[in-house]
Amino acid sequence: MLQQKQTTAALERTVELSKSFIKHFHRRDASWCLSMCSPNITFIGAVREACTQGIDELTHFMDDVVARYYQEVVGTIDADGFLSPNGDTAVVTAHYLVASDPSSGHMLARQNQVTLVWDTTPCEVDHPLLRHVHVSALQTTAADGEDAQRLNRETYRYAKTVLDQLIRRSAISIRDTSGTMHYLAPAEVRYIEANRQRTVVHSLSETFAVRKGFKELVAEFGDGLVTVHRSYAVSPLHVKRIHGSAVVMDDGSEVPLPQRRTAEIRHKLDKAIALLGAQSRLREAPPPEL
After folding, report:
1. What angle do the packed helices 262-284 and 146-169 form, to 10 degrees?
2. From the centroid of its chain, how far is CA 94?
3. Which pLDDT tens digit goes with each residue over 212-257?
4. What is the rounded CA–CA span in Å between residue 252 and residue 182?
5. What single DSSP character describes residue 142?
6. Is 233 exposed, middle or buried (0-12, 13-18, 19+ CB in 10 A)?
7. What is the pLDDT of residue 217?
8. What count of Cα atoms within 13 Å lies in the side-chain half-sphere of residue 252?
9. What is the dihedral of CA 241, 247, 248, 249, to 10 degrees?
10. By percentage, how much of the chain surpasses pLDDT 90?
11. Which domains does the chain have, with CATH numbers?
């Protein structure tokens, strides 16, 4: 009974060490991770360059490749394992979701599977040593698709939440002519027009006039708006098409184009739409179905 309890405690400790290793690895804490490895550690990662033998190669890998493929762990890490019959080896398998750092400008989330093999033979350090790590990006092929569906939805929800937060952080406060304050992100504005002494904002939910100058207001929205006419600026996210001398918005409204600058403005819009279109599709599309 005592030996069984000791075995269970040893395995539980190794599982927790495995979770800690994963977290420290994705935080790029090389010194901690390397302190847990045996000199002959083998590491196989989910990217092409990730195949190392020995502590020196793994050190170089963490200093170089891991920094370029940085991702953070999202949520909990599910892990389980077993000990070899003679108790000198522990094998732990873990599953978890990782996502790219939003500040990197990339949006990527996926589920990783990691197998960690520990040498539990007593040595000069007070913890087991990692002999082998194998990381792979999990691709579920279950017939019913339930696991893949769950992962798809988790990835979608995480990406959409991060994107919505980034959009809301860019919200601009605008006071209309009646004194009401509006808070709008660039993605919530369809187009802006100069109308005599006032500037009219056409948002997704309402239209209102402000006393702020047209150029000043457009400048506040930065790359979120493209000026297509001396009196009009449109959001590339809500352009449906360019037809003749007009920009057709996604609600059917039309914004005039100066005929002499149609080609130039079409090029500007094409570049802006290509840059922002992926974000728009992610924000507006329903969760993917398999």
Report:
1. 130
2. 21
3. 899 999 998 887 888 988 899 999 888 888 888 888 999 999 998 8
4. 24
5. -
6. buried
7. 92
8. 0
9. 100
10. 28
11. 2-139 (3.10.450.50), 168-284 (2.40.50.1020)
Half-sphere exposure of 80 (CA within 13 A, CB side): 0
- CB-CB contact of 216 with 180 (8 Å): no
CA–CA dist 40, 80 (Å, integer): 24
Residue 224 in tokens: 């979120």
Burial tier of 161 (Cβ tally within 10 Å: 0-12, 13-18, 19+): exposed
- Which tokens go with 20? 């800690």
Written as one letter, the residue type at 224 is G
User: In terms of pLDDT, which residue wins out, 278 or 59?
Assistant: 59
Does the predicted model carry a pTM greater than 0.70? no
Question: How high does pLDDT run on average in the chain?
Answer: 79
Of the candidates 270, 257, 263, 253, which has an alpha carbon nearest to the alpha carbon of residue 227?
Answer: 257
